[in-house]
Hints:
Blueprint: E1 2-9, E2 13-16, H1 17-20, H2 28-35, E3 39-42, H3 48-63, E4 72-76, H4 87-95, E5 101-104, H5 110-124, E6 130-136, H6 147-150, E7 156-163, E8 168-178, E9 182-183, E10 205-206, H7 208-229, E11 239-242, H8 247-256, H9 268-271, H10 278-288, E12 297-304, E13 306-315
Helix pairs in contact: 3-4, 7-8
The structure holds coenzyme A.
Amino acid sequence: MKILGTGSALPKMTLTNDMLTQYFDTSDAWISSRTGIKQRQVMSDEHLEDLAAEASRHALENAGLTATDLDFIICSNVLDEFISPPLGCRVQSLIGAQCPSINMNGACAGFIFALNTAEAYIKSGIAKHILVLAAEMPTRMVDWTERGTAVLFGDGAGAMVVGEGSQLKAVHLATKSAIDCLYQKQFINSTPFDIQEANKKSALQMEGREVFKLAVSSAMKDIQALMTEFKLESKDIQHYILHQANTRILDSICLNLKEDKSKFHQNIQRTGNTSSASIPILMDELNREGKLKEGDRLILSAFGAGFSTGTCLLQW
Ligand code: COA
């Protein structure tokens, strides 16, 4: 599989740390030092499918293709206004594609799971050109009176058009069931036969410290396993593009790997944690800035609720 084009879209409203002090007791100093985040883009009058379609159009344009060239759309998404039909179906009509579309929910690691599925479809000949898309609005998942979670997230969409090639060298996926540290239940209708208690909480529940430890240990394990498998040393990897969850998580992984900080790209300062959209948004920025050179090796690694992790090795 090869990446033919990248695209991204962020909502227009910028929410700075200082602006958050209107909603709860917090400070720019606390948020910056604990997370690295200075501001995030949040949805106001936008709909998620509009951001997703904009990111997809940019990726198609970057690939030099049109929507009718697509054979499949794979959309990574956690929260959407619609339960059905899924987001990818609505994006299909907005961009003018005619191919089948599926949605995947792999939480924050969802984009790597979607890339892995795209590669399987390409290898098997099911599809030649696939739009792999992630669009997320985690700011609508948190309780806006809870400062512990509300400060962490931003909204956005990232996309890639992929096709045949040998850029993707390996993918490693893992799920280790650990629900309690990071989850969100949704309200569902009850029936006359229901004897279970209805869900009272609908906001994201998170044990921050536990998630921090799991994120660092699982990403380290996955990255080291890939490097050992391919007999790679530090000098062989030019870019680490990790899920933008928290600067301190990224710094810990970088330190434990004894890597150069400049290889660990970050945009979380501007975007916050955009869930599964964070990796394709960051990849698009690096691609458009010309930072990815032919032959460069990239490690992409994402982690999130599940606890699920996805790591892959790409050669640009
Ligand atoms: N502003 C100011 N103070 C805050 C705050 C905020 N937004 N959120 C929490 N605090 C306070 C707490 O109330 C607590 O106060 P206390 O000591 O008086 O009780 C103190 O800060 C420490 O809280 P704690 O939750 O222990 O902080 P922490 O050092 O663990 O940092 C996170 C919290 C969320 C930043 C950190 O745990 C983390 O990054 N976890 C990973 C989260 C993540 O990446 N999730 C997504 C994964 S995909």
